[in-house]
Amino acid sequence: MKTDQTNLQATGIASAAGAYILWGILPVYWKLIQQVPSEQILAHRFIWSFVFLLAVILVTRKTGTCLSEVSEIVKEPRKLICVMLASVLISINWFTFIWAVNHNHILETSLGYYINPLVSVMLGIIVLKEKLSFWEAVSFLLAIIGVLNMTFHYGVFPWVALTLAFSFGLYGLFKKMVDIGAITGITLETLFITPIALTFVFYVHINGTGAFSINTPMVTALLMGAGVVTAVPLVLFANGAKRLPLSIVGFLQYIAPTLTLFLGIFLYHEPFTSSRLTSFIFIWAALTIFSLSKTSWFNQMEPVFFKKKGSFDSYNN
After folding, report:
1. Whole-angstrom Cα distance, residue 123 to residue 84?
2. What are phi and psi of 10, to 5 degrees?
3. Any idea what the Cα angle at residue 67 is, between residues 74 and 94, rounded to 5°?
4. How far apart are CA 209 and CA 202, in angstroms?
């Protein structure tokens, strides 16, 4: 029995880690078609993701389950609205990421996904009235210092990083409100956007600016492949998440931005100045403290004054 549980966890770790590795190296894929306008890449990503996800549902024989979940959502307008809002947010997230990668802002995308867990917790505190511990408050402060340091030294607000972090954080919040299977959820989200994407693709082709053509077979194949590179990590993640405790999934999620950071520095030679390093150090320190805050022994070091009246804990009660 214990061996079976160990095997399930090992499979879960392999699946979740595989998903995060694929997400981490995704910039390489978008760079291969950086000559295509970002909005066209996004449109094709939705179209072919929807097609591929439908194929996954049919092959895995989950049609009945998906239809049942969709039926439940359609009966509840609030959940349907949440799914529609999630599709808008993932559109913003995907477009920002593709645009940033193909305009040499890979390091900012890495920063965005490092910040994302902290943004998710902040949204949970504001919207779901969850409690904020002392060490979580410290991690937020360090993250804010890191963002402000980058803004001060570069004179430009890191909008790419924050757009990615907040759009994905809000996306996760709406997904939590709906509580739907991963495959069904993303299929529905792509379904809502696909008609708009098809209309846009048809429009650019009518105007002679479309990138999808038999004259450019490699670009066309890569645009179609956008559905595969989108869906495969999602399937792996769904398979891993259901076998693992949240603490392990939370630890593994840092694989993706770390790989992206390395790609930006060593493969695409984006400048990693001392001031940018300082900002990342603040973010890494924030994430370390945030991760440790989930352990009971670390929370024992929480200052006594924070547990008294007037602390964050008492304020959120």
Report:
1. 19
2. -65, -40
3. 75
4. 10
Rounded to whole angstroms, the Cα distance separating 234 from 95 reads: 18
Q: Is the pLDDT of residue 163 over 90?
A: yes
pLDDT of residue 312: 35
The residues, ordered by sequence, that sit 6+ positions from 57 with a Cβ below 8 Å of its Cβ are 63, 66, 183, 187
Alpha-carbon torsion angle 259, 260, 261, 264, nearest 10: 130
Helix axes 217-241, 2-24, angle to 10 degrees: 150
What are φ and ψ of residue 67, in 5° steps?
Answer: -65, -35
Task: Compute CA distances 184 → 66, 178, 233, 295, whole Å.
Answer: 6, 11, 15, 33
Longest dimension (CA), the chain: 70
3-state secondary structure of 66: helix
d(C-alpha 150, C-alpha 218), whole Å:
38
Q: Which amino acid is at 24?
A: G
Mind listing the pLDDT tens digit for each residue in 205-263? Answer: 999 999 998 788 999 999 999 999 998 998 888 788 778 776 677 778 899 999 999 99
Q: Residue 192 half-sphere exposure, CB side, CA atoms within 13 Å?
A: 18
For the chain, which residues make up each domain, given as ranges? 2-315
Nearest CA to 172 out of 106, 68, 249 is that of 249
Residue with tokens 């670390």: 298
**Chain segment 261-304, per-residue pLDDT in tens:** 999 999 999 999 898 899 999 999 998 888 887 776 666 777 75
**pLDDT score, position 315:** 32
State the residue for tokens 């931005």: 257
